Amino acid sequence: MSRSILVRRSPIHGNGVFAAADLPAGKSLIEYRGKLLRHAVADRRYCDNVETGHTFLFVLNDTYVIDGTEGGNSARWINHSCDPNCEPMLWESKDGNPARDRLYIETLRPVKAGEELTYDYGIELEVRYTPRLKQLWACRCGSPECTGTLLKPKSRKKKA
Fold it and tell me: Is there a domain that residue 130 lies in?
């Protein structure tokens, strides 16, 4: 793990990742690591996880999902915020092989030492968003811009 970040208990949820020093905007902090799964495998393996309100899955590209529960690192502890100070950045492989793509977490703005690192999870589920499901995926970021849920609004399909 980078010396510029550390993991400890979070006021947002469970564990969190915090800046150990002042960080400039645009700093690459850590790669999101874990086992690569094809989307269909992740769907089969975790199809029942919709009801948990918790995931370590990260969509890497059109072919793969990173499963942070297997071989994951400290990046899996970065919490969601509706007003994030970080963002995931895809680094595509030079040879075009999607299995060699990498995902890094970078700062969006300067971050002060001791500040919790967050990004917008952007979770979109294929099931209908019921009040119960929104509560299961409740956001606890505390931001004035908080939407109350980690779930992104569904995009409306255009009629032909």
Answer: yes
- 3-state secondary structure (DSSP) of residue 48: helix
Task: Give the global pTM.
Answer: 0.87
pLDDT in tens, 77-109: 999 999 999 999 999 999 999 999 999 999 999
155 within domain boundaries: no
By three-state DSSP, how is residue 27 classified?
coil
Range of 23's domain?
A: 5-136
Pairing mode, if any, of strands 79-80 and 118-119?
parallel
What is the number of structural domains in the chain?
A: 1
Answer for the pair 2, 105: CB distance below 8 angstroms, yes or no. no
* Element of type H or E holding 38: strand 35-38
Query: Has residue 83 been placed in a domain?
Result: yes
**Amino acid present at 104:** Y
Q: Of the candidates 117, 116, 88, which has an alpha carbon nearest to the alpha carbon of residue 102?
A: 88
